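Subject: Sanity check before I submit

Could someone independently write out the structure tokens for this chain? I want to compare against mine line by line before I put it in a report. The sequence has 627 residues.
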Amino acid sequence: MAACSMEEPVCLIESDSKGSLRVVPSALETLQQIEQKVVVVSVVGMYRTGKSYLMNRLAGANKGFPLGSTIQSKTKGIWMWCVPHPRKTDHTLVLLDTEGLGDVEKGDTKNDNWIFAMAILLSSTLVYNASGTIDNKSMENLQYVTELTKNIKIKSKEEKDDDLTIVRYLPSFVWAVRDFTLDLEIDGKPCTADEYLENSIKEKEGGNPQYNEPRACLRKFFQPRNCFVFESPAKAKILKRMEEVTDKELEPEFVEEANKFTEHIYTESDTKFVGDGIKVTGRLLAQLAETYVEAIRSGKVPCLENAVVALAEVENTRAVEQARVLYVQRMESVLFPTNTWEELVLRHDSSVLRYDSSVLRYDSSVLRYDSSVLRHDSSVLRHDSSVLRRDSSVLRRDSSVLRRDSSVLRRDSSVLRHDSSVLRHDSSVLRHDSSVLRHDSSVLRHDSSVLRHDSSVLRHDSSVLRHDSSVLRYDSSVLRHDSSVLRHDSSIALQGEYDQKCEKHINESRKACEQIIQRVFEPLENKVGDGLYSVHGGHKTFCQDLQAMTETYRRAEGKGIMAEDVLKTYLDKKESVGKAILAADKSLTGLKEQMKALEEEHRPWWSRDSSDSDDVYWMYEDTTTFN
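---
Independent answer below. Compare away.
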């Protein structure tokens, strides 16, 4: 199906008491049926902080993800709810509610790390739900961010992932502050929730690593970042039955902020993508979940590059299979047997043309993707070029300043020599000029330092420019490689199908010809069985009948390409029958001639007439009768 609307959430990834993760097959099947692109929103946070309520609200329902009113966590593993996207009609909104972090019943943080990592890997937007304020305690609860690079790997090679590469693959970030009771102010001035977040995650100069590290990681890895502050939704009695209450029973400020939150998610959360812009469908999301969980279960770190390669292999295999099915459907309309090979080849070529069109559409989609990558790299290239030109301009300007300062230095040196010779008695002037000289020298050293710095920046930008160019060439080579692999696999698949059709064509033609031969030559077979050809002159009659029936067979329609081969096989079998009939015919003819010679000896001389032996024989018989 193109889209999906589930009545209730299902468990996508199970988490047992030992912290082992497992993908639920039935949930995978649901995802695999979604051909639309998906927007994936995950919520993480400490247990019993109201994460599930936000997910239900995004789904447009009060009930769905379980809302617990006790001290025990209700959600285990990662639960999924797929609903039509309220704003993007060609997308499906996939909501992932994760197991609460820091659950005391687990007693193992490793499970929390993998749950957090899976939420990031599968999401296009990550919602971090926390109570109270954004303070040091809430930042400490977000310790999983500091271990992000340990639990997620971008490149399959052993080289270290750079920060810019990591940011491209991570989701956008939303901090939902629950039960917020403070005024939104910074230094006594009103501020927005986003400004409150940015101010709270600033690093302290000279601060300890425990304070600065989670803040630095949050700023470095998650872009963009947004914040929403929710007051308490209602009194305690109402909170215990949140699945039943309506917005009218909740605090107006809470409802207003909740509506802002949902609208932000609907409009700002992007389509989930992997690699350099591959947009993910439900089917591909299922493959990603399975790949990541399998890596975790095998003791490896989930790798985005490996996941993209696995997706490409699955998509190529699927494209080849779809093309093969299309080819088979087209060839099914052929009525076997055809009269000539040309008819089969013509239909084969027509089906291959339709198949090539489907492959062309696939290649076009790949080309569009690579074109977007190309445009992105080109924009980066243009940006780097502009930076390079700007740095070159700065370099030229600094060089001009350097030359000017050198000229001033030479002039001042000349003035100094002149003043030294003319005004040696005026030491105060000399000291002044010396001070000017020292100042100009320091300016000259400063400008030289700036010049060296700009030169290093220029070399760095040049290396970046060369890197982007190599990336561009690499993407183009990958495109050509993937297309050639797809065409190779497709040709192999089609050749197998074509060979089967050719074999079927031959078999159906042979079967039809044998049926026609059985029908046409049935009278001949009956005469042979009844011995009607075992008479004097029977061989001649046999040959005449065989010739007539052969002509009748050749005029019959629907024989196909094996008509003459099957006929030759039949006639070859009848050759021995014809020889037997001929031998019998000769034997009967010799016997008749002997009888005639014996009769001729016993006839009276007057009745013998060689010119009319039959009449004489008749006369002899008649005369004998009368005697």
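---
OP: Matches mine. For the report I'm noting this point. The chain has three domains: 10-302, 341-519, 521-626.
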